[in-house]
Amino acid sequence: MSEQQQARPRIAVVFGGRSSEHVISCATAGSVLATIDRTTYDVIPVGITTDGRWVLADGDPERLRIVSADKLPEVDGAGDLVTLNAVAGGAELVVSPAGAPPSVLGQVDVVFPLLHGPWGEDGTVQGLLEMAGVRYVGSGVLASAVGMDKAATKVVLAAAGLATVPSVVVTAHDWARDEAGCRERIAALGYPVFVKPARAGSSMGISKVRDADELGAAVALAQEHDPKVLVEAFAAGAREIECGVLGTLDGGVETTLPAEIKVGGDHEFYDFEAKYLPEQSTTIDLPADLPDEVVARVREMAAEAFRAVGCEGLARVDFFLMPSGELLVNEINTMPGFTPTSMYPQMWAATGLDYPQLVERLIQLALARGTGLR
Prior knowledge:
Blueprint: H1 3-7, E1 10-16, H2 22-35, E2 42-48, E3 54-56, E4 81-87, E5 90-96, E6 103-108, E7 110-114, H3 124-132, E8 135-136, H4 141-148, H5 150-159, E9 167-170, H6 172-177, H7 179-187, E10 193-197, E11 207-209, H8 215-223, E12 229-233, E13 239-247, E14 253-255, E15 259-262, H9 272-276, E16 283-285, H10 292-309, E17 314-321, E18 327-333, H11 343-351, H12 355-368
Parallel strand pairs: 1-2, 1-7, 7-8
Antiparallel strand pairs: 2-3, 4-5, 5-6, 9-12, 10-11, 10-12, 13-14, 13-15, 13-17, 15-16, 17-18
C-alpha cells in the first residue's frame, strides 16, 4: 500500500445485523458503498450475519440491492471473520481467515454503522464503538437507544413539550399476566388502533386493528419482533409528513424541506412493501404541498425533536398533520435508510444537498468529533 493510500482515512462500513431489518441495512449499505469516494477514503465493508458474526464482506452494491420480495440481500457469512480491537488512539480491524493466523487489517478512523433495528441502531453497537475508542457516524448511545424505543421517545418528546399520538405500552409480562386489563386500556384509545413493536422499524410487525377480535393476532405478530409492544390511536385523516435533520460542523443543525407520503393501492399504511419494493403505488410529494407557516413549524419541531433526544449527525423526524392543523411527532429515526427510495436522502437532495455531499458531510461530522462524553 502506498503512502498516499495509507494517508486516506479508513472508513469501515458496517451493515447487516441480527435484527429483522437485516435486509434494509444491506440495501442501505449498497447505496452508500456505491457512492462513497474511494479516492478520498479507504473503505472496508464489514457485514454482520443474522447470528451476529462480523465478516469481511465484498461490498458489491449490486449484490446488496433489493430486487423483489423473493430476492432480498443478506450477509451470508462467507467472508473471513473480523474483530474490532481497541488500541492506543483508536481501534483496529483484525481479520481471522479460516486455517490461518489472524492479521491486522489496519486502524479504523471512522465506522459508518448502517444498521437498523435492535443490536445496531439501538445504542448497542454505539456502546461497543465508544468502548473501542473509535469515531462513528450518527447518534451516541443514549440518543440511539431512545430513538429506537418508540415508547421511550414519546416520554422524552412529551418532556420537551412536543405532542405525540396517544398510546398504550404492552409488555410481554403485562399481556401474559393481565390480558383483560391490557385490552381495556387499549379499548380506551378507541378502535381502530395500530399495533407495532416498540423497538423495530421499516414497518416490521405492524398491524392495523379494527376491533378487539383482531387484537390478539396483532400483538402476537408484534411480539415476534419485540416483546414490548406499542399500541397507538388511529390518527384519522392525518397527512404523513417527514423532515430530515443534519448536524453541522459548528454544532448546529439544518433541516430539509418536508415531504409527504401518500400510500395508495392496497396498502392501508406505509408498510414494508410500500416503502422498499419497486413498482408500488406509494407517491411522494417533495416538497410537500403545505402553507409556508406549516413548513416552518415542521422544520422547527424536527430540530426540537433532534435536540430533545440528543441526536448527533442525522435523523429523520416523522409527523402526522391532523385535519385540525395540529402537528404530532410520530417517531424519530436516528439511522434512516439510504436506499434509492429512502426519504432522507431524497429530502436533502430537494433541499440542495445531493447524495455524495450528504455521505461526505456525515463522515466529516464523525471525523470532527471524539468519543466519550461530549
